[in-house]
């Protein structure tokens, strides 16, 4: 009998975590940059909170979803680039020559993303609260924020894996980063949708699933427990996960066939 | 059904889009416990053959059975039976040697206790016990190659594929690797399929050699039989006085056709007579030589005869 799926996933996940932990620059930038952007936005755009109809008391509370979403994106691009690097270097072939189930590779890689996502979520919440972010949904809400953030990271991670498996190129994965970044900015990340003046921008933000991920997380900070926002947030995250992981699994089958 | 740890290949072809036929209908058989040397220059099709036999690249046509399993239809069974060290030692620079072995062992289903034991044993065997807990990015080329070999052996495979295992290694590391490959075949009965562009490597290690050029096998036999096919040794003489060179050429020409030689020397392939006859003939003409050498035919002579080109020096060139 071959090795269990759990053993294989654990081995790949352990490698993924070890790799990340042994690259302090990756960990530091994954923690530092989102918080840096957050600080700049929160203080620079604080006046936006005085716009009539603005849903939060401070822009800092409103913008707190930004580092969480951005961090998920960082994690996904890093993991996708790592996978592409494995393909380029032949390490993927080495793993393919073992009785490893292809799905173990995907799950192991995603486990690494989850680990980084958990670390980022806990650090950001701690720093955010210390900076004065008021999480209306309390401690339980913080846990839900981390869960939703990890789900977002999983979905983005699946997209990164598709890119890596389809192209086998680190450059291709990394060059997709600006596209993801644009997709985040074309959402309600900086302003509530009903306050976006340009019709086309409001339309794009409305059909952009990232808006609902952002609003799900944001609702826990600025509103408390908003069932509709949470349902939409978790629903979109689940949809992205299903599509991205389905696509990644299909790409993996093609590559190891 | 093929042999449990043998390799049977029939009319294997691999075509790449917009490219030539990298492998053009090769057929070969490797017996259990045999070391088979696949010798050829860069771009001859050696690595493509290995990728197909290890199931990493599907063939365009033809069939092959490895350890009795079809490489196309029974990939998982093939992979469970083989170990492979491919051309590039693909290692993770951020993991230690021991981390690599632990990962490989886990993926092969070894228990936690076995993983540690096997890891220690293999690190010891390839001389990396001291360096086992260091990250691979600090390893030399030779250390990486040795770790690569250890990784290929984690699950005690019955067939081992080594794709140019000593390219770029210093002589000491090369000898150590040769010794380990020989030991594996001799003591553990492992079948070894080894690609190389080093003539000496094929000569020293291989029970049988297949010479591949432009995707086709142009000769196949034991190194001794291949060299015997060429048959005749060559004699090279370096005249003591350079002005006597033409006289030495005249004398040596009586024994066979002139062939390329070292600068200042004269060499012929011996068609008649032996070294003693050559010495007597030179002495009779009162010609003094500073060096006189008898060379048995080499695998390079075989390659030269079969393809019209020399393989010597290929190993020093960059990989393609």
Structure description:
- The complex is a heterodimer of chains A (257) and B (320).
- With 257 residues, chain A is an all-alpha fold.
- Chain A has one domain (5-256).
- Chain A has helices spanning 5-21, 24-44, 59-63, 65-89, 91-96, 102-131, 138-167, 170-175, 177-185, 199-207, 209-222, 227-256.
- In chain A, helix 2 (24-44) crosses helix 6 (102-131).
- Chain A is elongated and about 60 Å long.
- The two termini of chain A are 22 Å apart.
- Chain B is an alpha/beta fold and 320 residues long.
- Chain B folds into two domains: 7-91 and 139-228, P-loop containing nucleotide triphosphate hydrolases (Rossmann fold); 234-295, 2-Layer Sandwich (Alpha-Beta Plaits), CATH 3.30.70.
- Chain B is 35% helix and 24% strand.
- Chain B contains eleven helices and 14 strands.
- Chain B has helices at 46-53, 75-81, 97-107, 112-125, 141-152, 171-188, 199-205, 223-230, 245-253, 275-284, 299-307; strands at 7-15, 21-30, 35-39, 61-66, 69-70, 82-85, 159-163, 191-196, 208-213, 216-221, 234-239, 258-259, 266-269, 289-295.
- In chain B, the strands form three sheets. In chain B, strands 6-7-8-3-9-10 form a six-stranded mixed beta sheet, sandwiched between helices. In chain B, strands 2-1-4-5 form a four-stranded antiparallel beta sheet, covered by helices on one side. In chain B, strands 12-13-11-14 form a four-stranded antiparallel beta sheet, covered by helices on one side.
- In chain B, strand 12 and strand 13 form a beta hairpin.
- In chain B, helix 3 (97-107) packs across helix 4 and helix 8 crosses helix 11.
- Chain B starts with 6 loop residues before the first strand and ends in a 13-residue tail after the last helix.
- Chain A binds chain B through residues 1-4, 7-8, 10-12, 14-15, 18-19, 22-23, 86, 89-91, 93-100, 104, 257, and chain B through 54-56, 58, 76, 79-80, 82, 84, 86, 88, 90-92, 94-95, 99, 102-104, 106-109, 135, 151, 155.
């Amino acid at each position: 009998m071959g090795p269990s799926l759990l053993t294989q996933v654990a081995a790949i996940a352990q490698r993924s975590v070890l790799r990340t932990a042994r690259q302090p620059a990756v960990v530091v930038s994954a923690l530092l940059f989102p918080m840096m952007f957050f600080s700049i936005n929160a203080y620079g755009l604080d006046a936006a909170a005085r716009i009539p109809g603005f849903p939060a008391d401070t822009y800092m509370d409103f913008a707190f979803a930004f580092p969480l979403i951005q961090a998920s994106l960082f994690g996904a691009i890093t993991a996708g680039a790592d996978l592409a690097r494995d393909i380029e270097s032949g390490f993927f072939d080495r793993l393919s020559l073992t009785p490893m189930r292809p799905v173990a590779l995907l799950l192991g890689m995603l486990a690494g993303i989850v680990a980084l996502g958990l670390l980022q979520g806990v650090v950001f919440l701690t720093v955010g609260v210390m900076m004065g972010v008021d999480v209306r949904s309390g401690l339980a809400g913080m846990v839900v924020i981390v869960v939703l953030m990890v789900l977002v990271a999983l979905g983005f991670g699946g997209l990164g894996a598709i890119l890596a498996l389809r192209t086998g190129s680190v450059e291709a994965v990394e060059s997709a980063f600006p596209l993801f970044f644009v997709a985040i900015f074309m959402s309600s990340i900086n302003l509530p949708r009903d306050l976006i003046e340009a019709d086309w921008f409001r339309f794009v933000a409305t059909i952009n699933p990232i808006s609902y991920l952002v609003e799900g997380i944001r609702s826990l900070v600025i509103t408390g427990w908003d069932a509709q926002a949470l349902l939409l947030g978790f629903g979109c995250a689940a949809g992205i996960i299903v599509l991205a992981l389905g696509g990644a699994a299909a790409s993996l089958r093609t590559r190891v066939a | 059904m093929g042999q449990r740890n043998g390799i049977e290949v029939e009319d294997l072809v691999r075509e790449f889009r917009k490219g030539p036929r990298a492998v053009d209908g090769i057929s070969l058989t490797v017996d259990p416990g045999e070391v088979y040397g696949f010798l050829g220059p860069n771009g001859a099709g050696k690595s493509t053959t290995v990728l197909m036999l290890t199931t990493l690249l599907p063939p365009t046509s033809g069939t092959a059975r490895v350890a009795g399993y079809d490489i196309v239809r029974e990939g998982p069974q093939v992979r469970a039976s083989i170990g492979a060290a491919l051309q590039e030692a693909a290692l993770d620079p951020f993991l230690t040697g021991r981390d690599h072995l632990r990962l490989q062992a886990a993926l092969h289903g070894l228990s936690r206790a076995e993983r540690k034991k096997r890891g220690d044993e293999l690190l010891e065997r390839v001389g990396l016990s001291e360096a086992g807990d260091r990250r691979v990015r600090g390893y030399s080329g030779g250390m990486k190659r040795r770790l690569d070999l250890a990784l290929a052996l984690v699950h005690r495979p019955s067939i081992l594929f080594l794709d140019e295992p000593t390219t770029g290694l210093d002589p000491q590391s090369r000898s150590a690797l040769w010794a380990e490959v020989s030991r594996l075949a001799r003591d553990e009965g492992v079948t070894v399929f080894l690609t190389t562009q080093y003539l000496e490597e094929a000569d020293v290690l291989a029970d049988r050699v297949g010479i591949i050029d432009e995707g086709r096998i142009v000769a196949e036999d034991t190194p001794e039989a291949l060299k015997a096919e060429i048959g005749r040794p060559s004699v090279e003489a370096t005249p003591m006085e350079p002005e006597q060179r033409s006289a030495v050429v005249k004398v040596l020409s009586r024994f066979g056709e002139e062939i390329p030689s070292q600068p200042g020397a004269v060499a012929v392939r011996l068609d008649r007579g032996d070294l003693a006859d050559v010495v007597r003939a030179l002495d009779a003409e009162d010609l003094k030589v500073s060096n006189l050498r008898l060379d048995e035919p080499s695998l390079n002579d075989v390659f030269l005869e079969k393809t019209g080109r020399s393989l010597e020096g290929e190993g020093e060139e960059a990989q393609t």
